Amino acid sequence: MPDGLYAQEKVCRNEEQLISKLQEIELDDTLVKIFRKQAVFLLEAGPYSGLGEIIHRESVPMHTFAKYLFTSLLPHDAELAYKTALRAMRLLVLESTAPSGDMSRPHHIASVVPNRYPRWFTLSHIESQQCELASTMLTAAKGDVRRLETVLESIQKNIHSSSHIFKLAQDAFKIATLMDSLPDITLLKVSLELGLQVMRMTLSTLNWRRREMVRWLVTCATEVGVYALDSIMQNWFTLFTPTEATSIVATTVMSNSTIVRLHLDCHQQEKLASSARTLALQCAMKDPQNCALSALTLCEKDHIAFETAYQIVLDAATKGMSYTQLFTIARYMEHRGYPMRAYKLATLAMNHLNLSYNQDTHPAINDVLWACALSHSLGKNELAAIIPLVVKSVKCATVLSDILRRCTLTTPGMVGLHGRRNSGKLMSLDKAPLRQLLDATIGAYINTTHSRLTHISPRHYSEFIEFLSKARETFLMAHDGHIQFTQFIDNLKQIYKGKKKLMMLVRERFG
């Protein structure tokens, strides 16, 4: 390969122009004889031939020329055509110093290429030509098991780019499933094998096409058959991340469309479902934050697996799951008809939450209100248990007053879950647990008022007066609330007497 971009591009261009001239010539018997003779000569000519058995590492690759030779020779001497094309598949400049058979670390090889001397500016074009040669061989080998195996081995040994291997996997899949005939199972297996190689190559590297690749692999395995799907689920950890395995692989495998496509009987369906559940539980153990909900969904129809998934969530709740994740799972549990479990998860979520006085538009507020409504519907004991958690986690006065108001409107447990009988009496604000909530709400209003007043500007005065009116409504719910509120206002007038205009507005409204 010559040095410099211009010279390297000229090599490619001249070769392509020469081949396009040759393609204009009609091959008769005489020319086929010459072709055969030249192909054999090139294969046996040693290191001075680009198709010799041993070549210099920086010898210009012969992919484009070999593709021309292959298509020309194929109808006349298939053995020689394949021998030539397979010899030309190599791309030594990308080979590591390890022996050529060692492909255990394919994705590390390409990453070191740019630092090598000399620089191959046309490398991406060369790799795409190599891919074209492989695709041409795959197409020609359809229906020939021995040839397909040889071509597959050559691809796995010589192609180092995951995107090109993925393209070949897709090409093989298209050729194998052409509409005019039954699928070619050997070619489908080649497609799957290449797809699995891509999964392994890109598992620990960032690749923007990764989701597309995973979805495609499941489609390919579905075409190959139920045993292929079972196999990728049993070996998921070498192919997929836990999130991919649960949210894409197992979910697709368990979908109705897959079951219909495979014409599965009950026994096969159950075997596949069992593999999906095992995968789901393994993924939930490995990455509960991202996989717990998918695992619960996948295990719904099996009592023991579902219990196991629920237990994994409970164990993970104290070790790093966020309140958002726990609330999401809790709502799912309620939707599935497990209110007590939903309640348990909601209480665990509350432990992770912390809403300060000024976070009155925080997205978690809806979850807090939902958790309190759920506890309220279950009964007095559940409400009494969650209120201390609310008081500890929520310092926002408006949220606390909203919860308080909702709790005083109806009797706890009136929904009649589990057929409980209820006395129908409203809960008293003078006794636990509502007394604790009332005190916390009043305390939150007092703290928030002082916080607001430290940096209030005149344009917020009227809004502040409305806030105090809301505070008064809460104060008045207490037995001695009227006195408490009067003392509170007097206190404000004393501390903030420097804010004359604001205190005049306070006097006008509250005396």
From TrEMBL:
GO molecular function: zinc ion binding
Keywords on record: Metal-binding, Zinc, Zinc-finger
Domain ZSWIM4-8 C-terminal residues, every copy: 325-502
Tree of life domain: Eukaryota
Keyword Zinc: yes
Keyword Metal-binding carried by entry: yes
Record GO cellular component, one term: Cul2-RING ubiquitin ligase complex
PANTHER family found in the cross-reference section: ZINC FINGER SWIM DOMAIN CONTAINING PROTEIN 4, 5, 6, ZINC FINGER SWIM DOMAIN-CONTAINING PROTEIN 6
Full protein name: Zinc finger SWIM-type containing 6
Gene: ZSWIM6
